[in-house]
Amino acid sequence: MIKAEPKTILYFLWNYFDVVKDLFDIQADEGIIKKEMFAEVLKKHDKDIKQQLLEYKILKSQKDDYELRDVYYKMLEFVLFEFRPMLPEEIAKFGMAIGELFKRIRGKSEGNKEILLERIRALSTQIREFSDAVEKNSIRLLNETRDLKANAAKVDYREKIQRASFWIHYYIIPLNTILDVNHKESVSNRLLEISEYANQMRLNSTEEEIRQSFERLYFMLRQTNDDLLRQSKILTHELLPLIERIRTESIILTGFIKLLKNPYKITPPRLTSSNKKNPVSDKIYLSTKEYFEQFSYMSETFIDQYSEDMDKWLFKKEVYKKKLVSQLPVENFFGWCMEQFNEDPAGLTNEKVFAVTSLLFDQDFDVSYSEKSKAFKVTTRTAKLNVPLLKISQHGIPGKAQVNS
Amino acid sequence: MEYPEKHRLIVEDLMAGRFILSREKHFEVLKGNEPFYTEFFKKSFDYQLVVTEEYAYIVSEDTDETISRDISIFFAILCYELDKQGKNFLDGLQYSEYSFEEVNQLFENSSYTDLIQTNKQLKDDDSRRKLLFSTMSRKNIIDKVTDDKFYFTPAYKIFIDFAREVADMQVAEEDN
User: Fold this and answer.
1) Which residue of A162, A271, A282 is the best one to mutate when testing the B interface, meaning the one whose CB has the most B CBs within 10 A?
2) How does pLDDT run across A132-157, given as a tens digit for each residue?
3) Is the CB of A252 less than 8 angstroms away from the CB of B77?
4) Is the ipTM of this complex over 0.90?
5) At the N or C end, where does chain A have fewer CB atoms within 10 A?
6) For residue A17, is it left (φ>0), alpha (ψ between -120 and 50) or beta?
7) All domains of chain B, ordered by start, with CATH?
8) Do B162 and A270 make contact, defined as CB atoms within 8 angstroms?
9) Which residue in chain A is spatially nearest to B64 when comparing CA positions?
10) Is B16–A276 a contact, with Cβ atoms under 8 angstroms apart?
């Protein structure tokens, strides 16, 4: 029995709400309020209210620890909009109770009007609790999902995938099954059946009190079915796609982050390269056009067949033969060649070297060559020629060295 | 032998490394003659033709790996940055129109600075613009709306599937 006035209790709650909320948070997380944590909360707020909490039956002892009484816990859940997600199994128990009560009501208890009215009342209570439980779960699941999306807790993508999969597997899909009207065994389907029965009974029942009771049940069920349909839509149209997307996006981001860590170690998608190869250049048209255009603008050319090329060098073999004969024997023929053009302003050209070389084939000269002798370099205006060291003497007359020996 | 209508366009597009999209007229021809083209590309060039409901492309051993990698990195950074801003990047890729400036800012402010600066196709505004409006546009991965605005064509899904495969690979590695 509570000695305190209801207003006193409510005023107490209003006055010490921060303390009570902290205790609620601890119980929501831990399931129980350990005595050390309880003491810590009172110390934090500097409030010694243990006695009142127990006296007003807000708190009850659990051995050395404490817990908020269910009625206060639920009230705080409601006012704070922070619901514990119920396992679908917990929600499904309402379905069983509803089914059992409906079976009894339909089983005709007209012989006992009072028990029938009690059962209708109990059925209404169960339906209401079921509807509340579904709504609270949807709210909690939506909040959880949105938090996961915003990633306020900075969980990594792998954990996000796991959490999303957990919510989908253990909460959302089973809850959806409970709400799915197309599912024969779903609670929603059972409620539609009850609604139909209540509708018939509110019109057909002869007893006024029973008729009114079924009417209340019928209208409550109409509202409940609308609410459940809305919750079902939230689940299927918003919650499930949202959490599914979080899971999918997290998987994709996990892959992308791995790629960004080692971009050159992972083989990217195979895209065909644009490997169009033409046998001719793709610029062939312009190149060809340009080539032919150079001829179309060529200026006229005249060939003057009477003009003489004054600079042209002519090899006068006899002149060079005489010079060579006069200097025989010559130890280095190509050295001699170079000397002949020292004075020539046009310098030594390949043409001149090869022309003078023709003297080597003259029968009046003997040409000898020693394998031991080194090569000689002749530098012309345009080339450097490696030539052998050739000795020239007059045919039939030995050189000085030969005479002396 | 009679070739299907738009045969030349189909072959030229695919051989140029373009994605043919379902909204293009020659996609219908390609889809309608899928067995013929599958054999045609296999026997003529040893290429594999991939046709989905949304796009078609060819896969060959002669892969343009650099471009493919750069585009993959582009999508990876884009998705990561969009997610960081709390946006649903999958919806974004599928439905949103982007401006170059918007995407450019994401890269400018990205924490993957080193990777961006060492990548020739992503290192600065001009490179990114070229990658988007030239390379990716030519391949039909984006559709230009104006000189500044574009949206992604369904071809982006190749890179999303690729990320999914990499993630699966990672999971498999960790499980082992």
Assistant:
1) A271
2) 888 888 888 888 887 777 766 677 77
3) no
4) yes
5) N
6) alpha
7) 7-59 (no CATH), 65-175 (1.10.10)
8) no
9) A273
10) yes
